[in-house]
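Continuing from the previous page of notes. For each protein in this section, the sequence appears first, followed by its structure tokens. Read the first protein now.
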Amino acid sequence: MKIPLFKPNLGKEELRNLAQVFKTGWVGAGPKTQELEAQFAKSIGARHAIGVTSCTAALHIAAQALGIKKGDEVIVPATTVISTPYAALYNGATPVFADVEEDTLCLDPEDFERKITSKTKAVIPVHLGGHSCDMDRIMKIARKYKLYVIEDCANAQGTKYKGRPVGIFGNIGCFSFEAKKNMTTGDGGMLTTNSLQWAEKLRAFRWYGSRNDTWKRFSGNNKYSWHYDVAELGWKYNMNDIMAAIGLAQFKKLPLALSKKDKIRARYNKELQGISWLATPKDRSYTHSGYWLYVIRIKNGRRDKFIKYMGEKGITTGVHFPPVYHHSYFKKLGISAFCPVAEKVGKEIVSLPFFSTMKPSEFSYVVKSIRQFR
């Protein structure tokens, strides 16, 4: 039996939406993109949503829209993917790594505050694996020091903090629809904000720096208007209607997918209780659903042996994530850090197979294999 770590749930609904796009012949950014943006914004209570090619692109232009530049510092958690500190680097700023909470793997508010200097311009809390950060504490610190907050929600479609969707607490939220996420558009991402000023900047930055993209020019005139102006440096980061067509079908499936994953998570927690060398994830009371990862911790220095064993059983596992500052690129830049909790958990964490279409037989095989590990 071969069991993947992730598996997207794609079917006839996505094909039907794609057929509509192919029939119109409009495959670039257009009406489907706008439809997904409107639905997504409404679902989390944001005034604006802007579709882009990836969450990495979203983080890049979110920092750009907030005016982050050379000489600034941006605080990011040590446990995250490389895209998070890249948001600072792409804009000429320096990422500063703060430690994470041992139970949630999310940004530790206390260490975040300790890392603030006169150069600090923003913080990027990451809702790791779909567990929400402690946004009340983070926002309180950010207001105290007048810092911008960019929420990295790449792992957290459907996650709620104290009953409210993540992505609306900070100045800008950034979501991922990459192939493995709770909902996918193949690749793709979304920005959310309540600020019209930042929304307009983000729309321009995703399309070369112009506020008059192809669909706007086409749909706003009886005759196609060729003219547009580029007012500032931008990028080619726009979502297209092929992505959005898949996303609209996925968006309808998301509530049921999350419900199924919540049940699988609860079953994992129950079935893996009582194993002395293994710790299951701990969820704080303020977070709800939206989980992308199921992360256990293997004690006594046996993590790598466990991963090898699971692979021999045909079970795919992963590590999300070792301390991001371990990447050699940061050494080349002369950026160093040491975060004790991130270092410790980075040697223990393992992500287990976790997807909404996981069959009972697959689940049972994973649990049985874990229990047989010696």
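Done with the first. The second protein uses the same format. Note its length before scrolling.
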Amino acid sequence: MRLDGKVALITGAASGIGRESAILFAREGARVVCVDLDAKGLDATLGLIPEGGEAIAVAADVAHAADCQRMVTAAEKHFGALHVLFNNAGIMDSRDDDAVTTEEAVFDRTFAVNVKGVFLGCKFGIPALRRSGGGSIINTASFVAVLGAATPQLAYTASKGAVLALSRELAVIHAREGIRVNALCPGPLRTELLMKFLNTEEKRQRRLRHVPMGRFGEAAEMARAALWLASDDSSFTTGSTFMVDGGITAAYVTPE
């Protein structure tokens, strides 16, 4: 098993990429700390953990320092260490649009969760990784961190660009401590988060026209990519912009 003996903390674990990662990481031998604001969703995730797997749930808002400190403390208290930190929690507000239309409150909340949440996860998670002798940090960015989105979502796009920059700098700072930091950049996914934003068939087709593979990705596919970054298989990989995007960032023209 690729994560045997490791303790992994996953934020945004009540649904989507976080839930699929929690299930897969547990199947691969990790003891998993599942974190989310959605307590019911966390309970559902725990119910999907494979038999014999170990997982606990911590209800927390990653935009608050006390909550992030508490989730890391729970990992060390319950499982004795932390080896993998997957800062995956994120939001995409349906009111997110262009600079003229997007409300300041939408912009601020998006940054509080998507960027500050990653910062706070690292602020409290890195000392725990040091105590365990090193480990892997995975921060969920997005393909829009390197491309503009065809459907305006300025706050989200800017926030994911910030996650990418933050990840690169952390990778450089902590490389010689045995702490690897990589940014997972999913392409458009068939998740509740994106489907709520692309809430018409016209919006969905507009996004798909730019994906060479011609389909939305699945959360389980992102979980498998995260597993590689979490495991020792990626031991010489840090500071990477890990694109798992169906080819969207490689496309020059829209495929027919």
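What the second structure shows: The chain has one domain: 7-243. The beta strands are 7-11, 31-36, 54-59, 84-87, 135-140, 179-186, 241-244. We return to this in next week's lecture.
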